[in-house]
């Protein structure tokens, strides 16, 4: 894999190891352009051949089908540079840079902003799609702008953060611009002035009184490694369900029966519940059905033991969601994108 031009694009490429759930997938064409001009050329070829385009990054948040027709495109633009203005720093980052590698490089440079987002798998180009978040920080907290290229025309332009319409695990790239643009570059706002965010979970207890971006990033990595299965060892896509938003009335009804239930008040008379807690309460943690299971330490993570496919995984997820609905009256929504 990793062809830079369509002349070199493989025909029927196996993407089974290119998605962290290791769902079997054969793509008719796969291309990973490393320059903007080769990306434009790929878009042009897709246009003239009328190939539908499937955008991919590291495959850590997708449920791939057994067969992908058209062209699978992974922008492999791996440049990044910093622009300083006093203590404020803007990082310009190509879509193909590994997100975790970028976080560690910025933290090593002593720059604050993304250290809480360490060890999230995937490429920088996919990070705005679901507005990645962890340990009290979301990408939208530091994102200045996103550069995109229109799939239909190849035209490139920048969208500022407001135009990206970020929400919880949500953005315009999942809605109005889904399948219309490819993200080519991000501009991130960082700072050399300390601004640690340590209020989430036991993060504060894991770092010294004068933390650095690097010590925070390392603490986040250590906590995540204790809690989450490594996809290189056990196939998974991280959180399989979003934490559901329900009305405050619904939450109060549930709290009467389950006073220990964790809940997080939100604007607009809504409360966010912990999907992992709901699944755990249904006794599903550690349960296995054929090729798939609920992870034994983290009920929000579904794992693939091998030999399964997407229909099998979706049917397992349906069973879990139905069990949670029957008990709590709460609908669970999938977090990964069904391609
Ligand atoms: C172990 C594990 C832990 C995780 N922890 C977290 C976490 O803490 N927080 C969190 O938010 N997420 C988490 N995730 C989910 C995932 O890492 C993120 O969503 C990540 O941003 C996906 O990146 P990717 O490159 O793998 O994208 P992919 O899975 O390849 O693609 C995801 C979506 O983005 C689209 N896309 C990809 N690249 C582009 C592009 N250049 N332009 C436009 N669209 C594009 C795809 O079409 C697809 O719809 C975790 C996943 C795993 C496996």
TrEMBL record:
GO cellular component entries: cytosol
Location of the active site: 169, 239 (proton donor), 335
Gene Ontology molecular function: any one: FAD binding
Predominant subcellular localization, coarse grouping: cytoplasm
FAD-binding PCMH-type domain location: 23-193
InterPro entries according to UniProt: FAD-bd_PCMH, FAD-bd_PCMH-like_sf, FAD-bd_PCMH_sub1, FAD-bd_PCMH_sub2, MurB, MurB_C, MurB_C_sf, Oxid_FAD_bind_N
Single biological process term from Gene Ontology: cell wall organization
Known function: Cell wall formation.
Name of the molecule in the record: UDP-N-acetylenolpyruvoylglucosamine reductase
Organism (species): Vreelandella aquamarina
């Amino acid at each position: 894999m990793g062809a830079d031009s369509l002349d070199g694009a493989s025909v029927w490429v196996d993407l089974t190891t290119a998605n962290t759930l290791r769902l079997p997938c054969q793509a008719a064409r796969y291309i990973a352009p490393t320059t903007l001009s080769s990306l434009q050329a790929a878009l042009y070829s897709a246009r003239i051949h009328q190939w539908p385009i499937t955008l991919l990054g590291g495959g850590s948040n997708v449920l791939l089908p057994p067969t992908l027709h058209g062209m699978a495109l992974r922008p492999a633009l791996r440049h990044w540079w910093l622009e300083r203005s006093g203590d404020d720093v803007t990082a310009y980052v190509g879509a193909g840079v590994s997100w975790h590698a970028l976080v560690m490089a910025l933290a090593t440079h002593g720059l604050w902003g993304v250290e809480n987002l360490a060890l999230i798998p995937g490429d920088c180009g996919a990070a705005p799609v679901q507005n990645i978040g962890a340990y009290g920080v979301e990408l939208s907290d530091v994102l200045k702008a996103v550069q995109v290229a229109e799939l239909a025309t190849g035209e490139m332009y920048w969208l500022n953060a407001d135009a990206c319409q970020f929400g919880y695990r949500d953005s315009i790239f999942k809605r109005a611009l889904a399948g219309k643009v490819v993200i080519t570059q991000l501009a991130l706002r960082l700072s050399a002035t300390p601004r640690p965010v340590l209020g989430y979970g036991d993060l504060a207890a894991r770092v010294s009184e004068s933390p650095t971006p690097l010590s925070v990033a390392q603490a986040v990595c250590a906590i995540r490694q204790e809690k989450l299965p490594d996809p290189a060892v056990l196939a998974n896509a991280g959180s399989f369900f979003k934490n559901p938003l329900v009305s405050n009335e619904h939450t109060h009804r549930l709290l009467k029966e389950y006073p220990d239930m964790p809940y997080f008040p939100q604007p607009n008379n809504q409360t966010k519940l912990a999907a992992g807690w709901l699944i755990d309460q249904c006794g599903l943690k550690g349960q296995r059905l054929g090729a798939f299971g609920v992870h034994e330490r983290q009920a929000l993570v579904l794992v693939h033991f091998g030999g399964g496919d997407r229909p099998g995984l979706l049917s397992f997820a349906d069973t879990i969601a139905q069990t949670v609905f029957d008990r709590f009256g709460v609908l669970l929504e999938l977090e990964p994108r069904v391609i």
